[in-house]
Amino acid sequence: MVTTTWPRDAAGKGWVRTMHGWSITRRLFVAHSVFIVSLAVFVSTAAFVDARDRGYAERADRLLAVAAAIADSPFVVRASTSPDPTAALQPYTLEVSRDAALDFITIMSPAGVRWTHPDPAEIGRQYVGRTGPATAGMSFTDVTPGSPGPSVRAVVPILDSDGEVVGMVAAGVRTSTLQIALDARLPAILAVTLTLLLAGTLATWVLRRYLRRVTLGWGPEELARLFVSNDSVVNSVPEGLILVDGAGDLVLYNDRAAELLGLPPRPASRAAGAFSPGIDELDLPPSLADLLRSGRTVVDEIHLSGSRVLVVSQNPAEPTPSRLGTRAAPVGTVATLRER
């Protein structure tokens, strides 16, 4: 048997290498998608928990009102002190349960012995659930796994004219967390979640298209290498190079051009601040400034710059097709200068 042992960090390095091959568009698309899905899950979970809690509270309040109305009924008070409470109260509780759409109404003695129950076989048996507060004369609600199944219930004491507890009423509905949420606000939660996902997906798609266009499909590492390589090439040529955009700003020039025209040195990095001076802001020879401003194509045109005689050629700056097979828009003109 041959066992192959992989380095512990092999999977992580493989994932990093895979991401290095991704474009900025893909990276932000994946990150934004993960964020949107995570946000949707968080919002829907929080809304679901809130709906569940509100559903329990609303049902408990309704059950408490029904149980209190039954316990306050003179008929129920008289029957609770009669020799046979079941005979009078069992038909009554079944009818009220149907009318109020409850799963059960149980009336019991102060000791918790059932006088009524939806299942007649349970009559006479001990009530399953908490009754302490009710025997002390206080109403309460509870979630209890009783004989009808897990239920939300309200327990209210039956008091006689002297204020003594002569019985207790328990009204409840069998339910589950999902059923309560469905009855409460789950449809609205699902609608909000789907709306959030759709809006996030649309925003991600728009962002992806925009970044795909402006980055030409290149990844950040590739763009960094491309910038360093181009900057090295631009500054290594013996001629001066000037790139002027359509607005008449000097987007790029090399060290040789700065030397020939007396231009200020370019910042070493973008961190030093953007530097795209306009042609009119620089102290250029009038004829050369007019040429750069016009954008016309010339070959070996003579211009004077102080004591220097410059040979200038200018052409439109036509970018090559990108890796996506599309051609970016022209960025202006590029001029070369050499001293005669």
UniProtKB/TrEMBL annotation:
Q: Which UniProt keywords apply?
A: ATP-binding, Cell membrane, Kinase, Membrane, Nucleotide-binding, Phosphoprotein, Transferase, Transmembrane, Transmembrane helix, Two-component regulatory system
In terms of one coarse class, where is the protein primarily found? membrane
Provide the transmembrane region boundaries: 29-51, 186-207
Q: Name one GO cellular component term.
A: plasma membrane
Q: Where in the cell is it found?
A: Cell membrane
Q: What would be an example GO MF term here?
A: ATP binding
Give any single GO term for biological process: phosphorelay signal transduction system
Q: Which InterPro entries match?
A: PAS, PAS-like_dom_sf, sCache_3, Sensor-like_sf
Question: What membrane topology is annotated for this entry?
Answer: Multi-pass membrane protein
Residue ranges annotated for the PAS domain, each copy included: 233-265
Q: Specify the protein name.
A: PAS domain-containing protein
Q: Which organism is it from?
A: Cryobacterium zongtaii
